[in-house]
Amino acid sequence: MNKYFFLLLSIFYFNKIVSQDINSDTIKNHDTISISNIKIINKISFELINVKINNNQLISNEVSYLKNNININERDTLSMIIQLKGGNNDIIFNYYFNDNPNYRTIENGKIIYDKSSKRIYFDFIPNNEQALNKFLTWNLYAHENNFSFSNYNFFIEINNLDYAPKIINKQIDKIIRNSYSYNYLPIISDGDNSNLFKLETNAPIDDFDPISGRILWKINPNNINELEKIFNFKLTVYKQNNPKKFDVDTFKIIYSENNFAPVFSKTSKWIVKEGENYEYKIPVNDPNVNDSIIIENIGAQLPRGMKLDKKNKKLTFNVDYNHADKVNSTQNYNLELKAYDLSGLSSQISLEVVVMNTINPMKVQEKITELISELTNHKKGLDEINDNLKWIESTSKNNRKIRTFSAAGITFLGAVVGVISANSDGSRKAVRLAGPIIGASGAVLSVINEVLSRDDNEIKNLLQETIKLQSNVKAKYDRLSFYENSPNKSDFQNQEIDLLIRTIESDRESLNKNLFTISENYQIIISENRIKNILLKK
What we know:
Layout: H1 2-18, H2 24-28, E1 32-35, E2 38-41, E3 45-53, E4 56-57, H3 60-66, E5 69-73, E6 78-85, E7 92-97, E8 109-114, E9 119-124, H4 128-133, E10 135-144, E11 148-159, E12 166-167, E13 174-176, E14 181-184, E15 188-189, E16 195-201, E17 207-208, E18 215-218, E19 230-239, E20 242-255, E21 263-264, E22 270-273, E23 277-281, E24 284-285, E25 293-297, E26 306-309, E27 314-318, E28 330-341, E29 346-356, H5 361-399, H6 407-417, H7 425-437, H8 441-453, H9 456-484, H10 495-506, H11 508-525, H12 528-537
Parallel strand pairs: 5-11, 13-20, 22-29
Antiparallel strand pairs: 1-2, 3-4, 3-6, 6-9, 7-10, 8-9, 10-11, 12-15, 14-18, 16-19, 17-18, 19-20, 21-24, 23-27, 25-28, 26-27, 28-29
């Protein structure tokens, strides 16, 4: 009686473990399937991972809370990073604003999509007009081969604050020739009917309107006192009810009879490196002592990160890491610059800019973290399979010598079948099928011994393959770990670590195939179907 009670209890334990096996119905109901750390992800999603307002980093719980909306003030600087998750590498990203597919650009806004990292970078400084509209909707879309599609709507509420009036069309220094009048009407943002203007100048102007700010000056070319003389202007706009809120425009005007075009000096290549900041003083002068020079870019759009200071005649270049695509390569840009004097005479020059490739340490660190996480999962899965196979091999030899149905035998059976188990109707059926057949301890022992002994060579071969793959994964893991916590920026910019990462990524497909093969063979060895088939033969 006790013997049969123990047998029933053992079968119950067996049923409880194998009932957790994976079946096709379970797979169909999941977006992500994991088999020995091999993941298939179908759905594309958007995740807001970074938000800054005026360079102030929002804390993580605020970011989680925001989700789809944010409130900022006029003239605030908003910076966001949105991560695309899921899908493969061929994701197509698109966007527009205010639910209008034709509204693709936004004033004072910049959007960059990094395809390699699948990150979207958004920078925005709302002006007064945008603040008056109060709301802005950013509509984001992502799809992949017309298979997986996702959208994300981000709402920005803009507060219209009481800022000081601002002169938009501020004047530059001018030399007036052949034209005998000067007429200037300032354009004001954040303005209303309460704005007033004040003018300070040594020019003999004819009219000034303190309400509109208009300046009118009819120049007399016969008046020697108005020739070759610098006239200074200082125009102030302020709120009548709050004079502390104001803006100022200062400029100079010269009336002259003789003029010469600006002259460029000879230039050479401007060589820069990725990840560095540079300043280039444009070599140009004007023969007219009192003349001013304005520089314009008349060629293609300036390279990303480059800015032209027109008045101070210089270029600044914040060189990021995405100009030159290949290691040890360069990216060349040809600038066409034109210099104007105040009366409109000009000259131009070509400037070649050479950007030398360097490795982005931030991306290398991110990639190392990503690969270490991936290899850690591989190591864990392989270690588990390795340990179980060794235990199976050892236990199999011992159990073949046993001629009675022991607790160890049934525990082993349950452990083997339950290693990678999940809910399965097939498992329960196998147990129900096994119940009538297992009528005595000798029969059960015979089944167990046959399961454990018939494929010794298969287990041994799989164990060898597992050990081999373990060694491969560990070697890559150990090498990456050497760099992971390095405090030296140069460690992430050498060719060795770049080659290592490229090698691991190129071997990823082969590694995943081997992992999948080992996982499949391992599951076959310990599967309930094997036990079921053997039981059916008994």
